[in-house]
Design goal:
The complex is a heterodimer. By secondary structure, chain A is mainly alpha-helical. Chain A contains 11 helices and no strands. Chain A has a domain at 55-225: MetI-like (MetI-like fold, Orthogonal Bundle). Chain A is 81% helix and 0% strand. Chain A is globular, with a radius of gyration of 23 Å. The two termini of chain A are 37 Å apart. By secondary structure, chain B is mainly alpha-helical. Chain B has helices spanning 9-30, 46-53, 55-87, 91-106, 109-121, 127-152, 158-164, 169-198, 201-207, 214-224, 228-258, and strands spanning 32-34, 41-43. The two termini of chain B are 44 Å apart. The chains are: A mainly alpha, B mainly alpha.
Chain lengths: 264, 259
């Protein structure tokens, strides 16, 4: 019995460690003073300031736009490449896997400076488009990585059967292959979105003047104390919590209802 | 259906230009210097000579490796029991705990690190300790989730079987559970050690610039001084050192499996 309490206590401490800084930031975002250590009183001034600071609002906008476009493009491209790979020669598969490993296993900073040097060698001015391209480049390998295991489990005979029954290859793709790898595509898209939204290092080296996402914005403001970053953080925490609750609680409720219906 | 394999070809070109070529450009920069107008570039080992002739650079690299090593070690020591206890909870609670561990990870990395600044400002921790707190905070979830995944894949009847064969709890853990979770630990190490070596915003944000790591060096040479050749050489040396350390980790994994 004592054992169990100790285990629970340990997990509670871990949770405390994970959430302490988040609670701290949310709490201090309502501070009326410009301090990260003394709480002077409740106020919304940092929220007002945040909404009035254009560069801050723009950073949220760029983070979301880049993450959404990079996710969409890399998911579609990654799905197409994966399907192609599943029909390819083993050598091609190996080459693509090895090359994809480069951005996944290399330190981010190496991928980042590689792209920065690449853009500069071709005299491409850095900015929104280089930032977006960089995000698409590092997201595709993760999408492929999530889809390939599903394709490996796929029974080749099913697609062949569809062809025998009169499907064109395209129809077989839509009706047989895609529905079976749907799960892999969805998890690939989720990984791509979080990778893009979370990225700092690659963005830092591939973006240009005036284009900041949340990461590079926060990095650029940390030299002085700027409590509106607390407000920004709180906004992100709330946003992600809402998304997660929707993504997890709704399927849970649906399943519970289904179980209840089954029982009834 | 066979024709689908043509779908890969555009990606081969894409990957060659956008993934492989940038790496080659780094190597190119590392082995050249910015020449004058008569000779635009010159092949040279100058950057490497410079790196190895001044002990300060080796010292920074060593400090980064040490930080990454101890960060990984602390993550295993804290994360293993956490993952183990989570795997012993009821299935529903397991799901909830995984969600609890994942959630902070989804919040932007910079924001998470920034969040520690306020708390750490209140303390009299040394810059080094502050950096450790930030590193462990950022990387612990990866370790917990990797170890948990390998523990949850374990056949639940193995431990009772070990008990039947005369093992006590400790022996069953050491002989059955721990060896079976080694793959999780190894992939946890890959996910923690690799990015930890090159991390540069955590030391900068939490260490206040007094704790310089190899990532900070690279950033300085690229962003502040604009010496891309030397910056590329440092990145190349760092990558090689990381590859060597990962090789030994993998080898250790392999040897373990051989036993």
């Amino acid at each position: 019995m004592k054992h169990k309490t100790l285990k629970k206590l340990y997990l509670a401490l871990i949770i405390l460690f994970f959430y302490l800084p988040i609670v701290y930031v949310v709490f201090f975002s309502f501070n009326s003073a410009r301090s990260l250590t003394n709480f002077a009183g409740f106020s919304l001034r940092w929220y007002q300031k945040m909404f009035r600071t254009r560069s801050m609002m723009e950073s949220i906008y760029y983070s979301l736009v880049i993450a959404v476009i990079a996710t969409a493009v890399s998911t579609v491209a990654g799905t197409i490449v994966s399907i192609g790979l599943s029909k390819s020669h083993r050598l091609v598969k190996q080459i693509v896997t090895q090359v994809d490993n480069l951005p996944m296993l290399n330190p981010d900073i190496v991928t980042a400076i590689g792209l920065m040097l690449f853009f500069s060698t071709l005299s491409i001015p850095t900015g929104f488009w280089t930032l977006l391209l960089a995000h698409i480049i590092f997201c595709i390998p993760y999408v492929i990585l999530s889809i390939m295991p599903k394709l490996r489990q796929l029974d080749d005979n099913l697609a062949e059967a569809a062809l025998d029954l009169g499907c064109t290859p395209m129809q077989a793709l839509y009706k047989v292959i895609l529905p079976q790898i749907k799960e892999g595509i969805v998890s690939g898209a989720l990984v791509a979105f979080t990778m893009s939204f979370d990225d700092f290092v690659i963005s830092y080296f591939t973006t240009g003047p005036g284009i900041n996402n949340i990461s590079t914005y926060v990095y650029s403001t940390t030299k002085r104390i700027n409590p509106s970053v607390n407000a920004l953080s709180t906004l992100i925490v709330i946003g992600i919590t809402i998304v997660l609750v929707f993504a997890n609680v709704i399927p849970m409720l649906r399943e519970r209802r289904r179980n209840r219906e089954k029982a009834a | 259906m066979k024709s689908f394999k043509r779908l890969v070809y555009p990606y081969l070109i894409w990957a060659a230009i956008l993934i492989v070529l940038p790496m080659l450009i780094i190597v190119f920069y590392a082995f050249t210097t910015q020449g004058n107008e008569v000779i635009p570039v010159k092949f040279t080992l100058e950057s490497f000579v410079r790196f190895f002739s001044d002990p300060i650079f080796a010292e920074v690299l060593w400090r980064s490796l040490k930080l990454a090593f101890f960060t990984t070690l602390i993550c295993i020591l804290i994360g293993y029991p956490a993952a183990y206890f989570i795997s012993q909870l009821k299935p529903d609670s397991q799901q909830v705990m995984v969600l609890i561990v994942t959630l902070p990870q989804l919040i932007n990395m910079l924001v998470r690190t920034y969040a520690w600044r306020g708390i750490l400002l209140n303390t009299s921790f040394s810059p080094e300790l502050k950096v450790y707190v930030g590193m462990v905070y950022n990387f612990l979830p990866y370790m917990i989730l990797q170890i948990y995944t390998s523990l949850s894949k374990m056949d639940p009847s193995l431990v009772p079987a070990a008990h039947d064969l005369g093992c006590d709890d400790t022996m069953a853990f050491l002989k059955v559970t721990l060896p079976l979770s080694v793959p999780g630990i190894i992939s946890g190490i890959t996910l923690v050690f690799l990015p930890a070596v090159s991390s540069f915003f955590i030391p900068k944000l939490l260490g206040g610039g007094s704790f310089v790591l190899v990532g900070n060096l690279i950033e300085n040479y690229f962003v502040t001084t604009g010496d891309w050749n030397f910056g590329s050489a440092i990145s190349l040396i760092m990558t090689i050192v990381i590859l060597i350390s990962m090789y030994f980790t993998k080898k250790f994994d392999y040897d373990k499996e051989a036993v």
